[in-house]
Amino acid sequence: MTNYLDFEKPLAEIEGKAEELRALARQSEGMDVETEAKALDKKAADMLVAMYKDLTPWRKCQVARHPDRPHCSDYIQALFTEYTPLAGDRNFADDAAVMGGLARFQGQPVMVIGHEKGNDTKGRIKHNFGMARPEGYRKAVRLIEMAGKFGLPVVTLIDTAGAYPGKGAEERGQSEAIARSTEACLQACVPLISVIIGEGGSGGAVAFATGDRVAMLEHSIYSVITPEGCASILWKDAEKMREAAEALRLTASDLTQLGVVDRVIKEPLGGAHRDKAATIKAVKAALAEMLKELTGKSGKKLIAERRKKYIDLGSKGLAA
After folding, report:
1. Predicted structure pTM score
2. Which 3 state secondary structure label does DSSP give 249?
């Protein structure tokens, strides 16, 4: 069953009418409704194309947050073999919001790390809705450093509204942990590829996404703050999130123009949640290409190019 977003309600009504007609036909032998149902199907298909042809930034946010989008665990299960999860930061605890471990991608050993939001209520609570605590970022640092020791490329999958802002997290050094994770990305002596698969929120996302190559799914978002948070600070009104989303320039197309993102991965019509298999296949192809681009480069060269990439980013952003 499709979970429709607010702006998709007209589409839901048409698809619902088509299904009602077919349900009536199943109950009444000899009743022919297929012509009418097909007409409704075509109307729905045309409406879907029109809706997704030019989504506003706020609607992109809604699509990026859709609960049925493929999550980190889905990508790991589909794209990686011999996945061996590694837990804990060797200091405080294991953070279920961050999953990571050793795996193979198309036969090549890699380290994969990502935010996991969970697929149902129980899972979302367990994974804290993908909002990592300090121990999650310290786990990521440990895994990136381990990857460096064994010469393994690192793949990060980003999907978080931001780092967890709770009292305990702040007491355990949340900002320092985020900074250390960002530093570990910058200093990694192995290829580091980041893909924003849903939300890329605040420093919680930057801590995983400071890579040699940064890709975004077409309807994902990447921003210094959520539109609601931005609206609350600037206008003291979270309901101004639409205006905030416009101003933040958080879409894949905006960020490509600014030079923040290197590649946009196209999603199926209607968003990743409508065809998970096709989305995962597109991410697989993009990962393979990006890994190929970086294979064979020395650690020294990777660090130097990565450093230059992010130093130059400021001037590109100002120019844009």
Report:
1. 0.92
2. coil
